[in-house]
Amino acid sequence: MMWTVILICFLASLLLTPVVRRIVLKFDITDKPDKRRINVVPIPSLGGVAIFIAFLIGMFLLPIDKTLLWPLVIGASVIALTGILDDILELKARYKLIGQLLAAGIIVFWGGINITFINLPFGGEVYFGYLSIPLTILWIVAITNAINLIDGLDGLAAGVSTIALLTIMGMAFVMGDPLVIMITAVLAASTLGFLPYNFYPAKIFMGDTGALFLGYIIAILSLMGFKNVTFISLIVPVLILGVPIFDTILAIIRRIVHRTPIAMADKSHLHHSLMKLGFTHRQTVILIYAISALFSLFALIFTMSTFWGSFLLILVLLIIVEFFVEVLGLVSQNYRPMMRLLRIERMDREEEQE
């Protein structure tokens, strides 16, 4: 039954995507080239509609309790509609946020998805109480936007999301959580069916419809799989979604440093910075896939480590991230404290002078 549903979702997405593309072209709903986009010719948008429909088909075929099915479907529909309106009308940031908050509220209040407490490493528990709901909504909205922000290259958001989904599914299998396995498998299959049309050179973009929808469901799945766990295990979903989360955090820091509006788009994200180093479009996407897979590997090792092993792992990861942040100039070209400390920057300049 499960494998049949997965195959149906994959084929539905694979067959629906070209249909959506033809309809979108008829109404001229395209991403036209501008100073912040990579594409040099207009590309049809709204490809996320195919992923969304394929996912819905899978949801209604799976034996899922209606108490979760309907909140998930309605919430997903709200976020997808928000994306559709944004792709067509280019909504202002505040209107998109309203849609995201509404979708998050549906799954939290109606679906009962939230983190109520965490177990501390050395004993004891921390209950969030009234903060449980706002913290959960904040997580869902943050991850929703994080996936949206990395959707800047052909196949990037779809590929990174699939890697994250497969990792969540693997961990759910180890933890014996069949519900998370089923939903994750359906979404991964729906995304993979779309990817052949979206990988470089893209024939269609998923648009905000797909990026917001993927981010929303992934955020919920990460909560379903890792709620009410230890403080250390709470870091696992952060690691799995490391690429979009770190890219979003750095984008916020960068805009604060440069005193530009946080909601203003720029061309200094991870994928932009890699392309400035000379990597091709395809090479950049594959490299970020590899980085995303590395984060997922860290997450898997993390779950099997002792407390001090986990602490050391995080420390090493943060040092690696900091190094790449400075080399790529993801905050600012002048932000290089670690390189100055190690005198790497001075060595680079001396080599340039020679």
From TrEMBL:
Pfam families: Glycos_transf_4. It is a multi-pass membrane protein. GO terms for biological process: cell wall macromolecule biosynthetic process; cell wall organization; lipopolysaccharide biosynthetic process. Keywords: Cell membrane, Magnesium, Membrane, Metal-binding, Transferase, Transmembrane, Transmembrane helix. Its cofactor is Mg(2+). It is found in: Cell membrane. Its main location: membrane. CDD domains: GT_WecA_like. GO terms for cellular component: plasma membrane. Mg(2+) binds at N148, D208. InterPro entries: Glycosyl_transferase_4 (IPR000715), PNAcMuramoyl-5peptid_Trfase_CS (IPR018480). This is Undecaprenyl/decaprenyl-phosphate alpha-N-acetylglucosaminyl 1-phosphate transferase. It comes from Listeria newyorkensis.
